[in-house]
Amino acid sequence: MTQKTALITGITGQDGALLAQYLLSQDYKIIAPTRLNPDKSKLKTLGINQHQGIEFIVYEKWSDFDKIIIQCLPDEVYHLAAVSHVGESHQNPEVVFDVNTLWTIQLLKSVEQYSRQSKFFFASSCEIFQDDLHGLVSENDQKTPSNPYGISKLSAHLMVQYYRDVKGLFACNGILFNHESELRAPSFVSKKICREVARIVKNGGQPLYLGNIAAKKDWGYANDYVQAFQAMLKQKMAKDYIIASAALHSVEDMVNCAFDALDYNITWQGKDLSRKALNQDGEIVVAIDEKFFRPLDQRFLKGNSSNAQRDLDFNNLTPFASWVKSMTLNEYRELI
Ligand code: NAP
Ligand code: GDP
Question: Fewer CB within 10 Å, N side or C side of the chain?
């Protein structure tokens, strides 16, 4: 069998690193365009930062992708790079649109002109749905985002559909709900909770301060999700899929699972801003700080992943408590 080539943008991020590891295990050759002096720490954690199967190429501007595509003629393109934090997108909407949308269009155009046989995956997001929507959403539900990140992702998502439906490319959107792992950036609540809980159990000290612990998310484990990216490109027809766990868990649930992972007992008291968790010695280990609250954080959105379950074998997902445990034990080991 001939070796497959995959181009991955965003290889230095959580999903890029995990996808690279997964594809290398299938003997892929990986082309990895990066910015100058890329931070390869996540790849190093996975032991693949110097893997011979990865060819790093430094690019300067989006138009460099014409040359990169011509050179490598990839079988598969995974466009994962993005300004990925919703909260931060309010500060620099023009940068977010440039990176998340215009770059995607450039890549689609390069593929259309120079490598039409390449199959194209785009990391779209659940943030493309309405901000005040509750319940279960499916691929074709109404999309009216109201933050710059969601708007940039929806614009790119529609361009992916345009290149599929009008220009005839094999291009698809993975509509991704939140997914976490040991490689998650510390600005996300999962990493913060697992890291801080490990620190409290090991060394004590300051409590963990959180914002809205009643917030509920459809969370999954990134290691499961990246497998679905590849499965989408293996389908006969290019199609968009929701990739989600279809279950909601609160931030408080996550805190409980993290302490459970280290066999550390806590008891919750109080409500709203005065809610706190105490350990067996009556010390406060978790408290609320208003500064971590967000203006818009009310929705309880779940993704209907039944199409992915049926077509992509997106089943037997790692349970919530298991991956929170894995992340917490990992943080605990880092402290030793
Ligand atoms: P991540 O860890 O934040 O990684 C983002 C990647 O994008 C990194 O490789 C980063 O490169 C690159 N990047 C960021 N800003 C850039 C810029 N200005 N120019 C060029 N490259 C830039 O994100 P992730 O969690 O792996 O997510 C992968 C994709 O899935 C993203 O498109 C994200 O929006 C989407 N998504 C993720 C989730 C989730 O829960 N993880 C949910 C929905 C959608 P550097 O290392 O050079 O900064
Ligand atoms: P995001 O919602 O995709 O930006 O992912 P995050 O992991 O940053 O946040 C997930 C949820 O956790 C949101 O509903 C936040 O409001 C909630 N949350 C509660 N406390 C915190 C906190 O201290 N930090 C962060 N990042 N989120 C928090």
Answer: N
State the ligand closest to the CA atom of 147.
2
Mean pLDDT calculated for residue range 20-45? 98
CA–CA separation, 317 vs 52, rounded Å?
30
CA of 317 to the centre of ligand 2 (A): 22
Fold of the domain built from segment(s) 189-216+250-299+326-334: UDP-galactose 4-epimerase; domain 1 (3.90.25)
41 lines ligand 1 (CB under 6 A): no
126 in contact with ligand 2, CB cutoff 6 A: no
The fold of the 5-181+219-245+300-317 domain, in CATH, is: Rossmann fold (3.40.50)
Residue 259: is it exposed, middle or buried by C-beta count within 10 angstroms (0-12/13-18/19+)? buried
Q: What spacing in Å lies between the alpha carbon of 271 and ligand 1's midpoint?
A: 35
**Is residue 22 left, alpha or beta, with left meaning phi > 0 and alpha meaning psi from -120 to 50?**
alpha
Q: Is 40 in the pocket of ligand 2 (CB under 6 A)?
A: no
Nearest CA to ligand 2 atom 5: 188
> Token pair of 182, please?
């040991």
- Work out whether strand 284-288 and strand 208-210 pair parallel, antiparallel, or are unpaired: parallel
Mean pLDDT within 289-312: 90
pLDDT of 298 > 70? The answer is no
For 104-131, give the DSSP string. HHHHHHHHHHH-TT-EEEEEEEGGGS-T
Model pLDDT for residues 135-145, shown as the tens digit of each residue: 899 999 999 99
* Average pLDDT of the residues of the chain: 96
- Using a 10 angstrom Cβ sphere, with 0-12 exposed, 13-18 middle and 19 or more buried, the burial of residue 139 is middle
Task: Report DSSP state, residue 319.
Answer: P
- Which tokens hold the place of 184? 């998650």
| pLDDT tens track for 153-204 | 999 999 999 999 999 999 999 999 999 999 999 999 999 999 999 999 999 9
Atom 46 (ligand 1): residue with closest C-alpha? Answer: 12
More confident residue, 88 or 264: 264
Q: Give the distance (Å) from ligand 2 centre to CA of residue 57.
A: 34
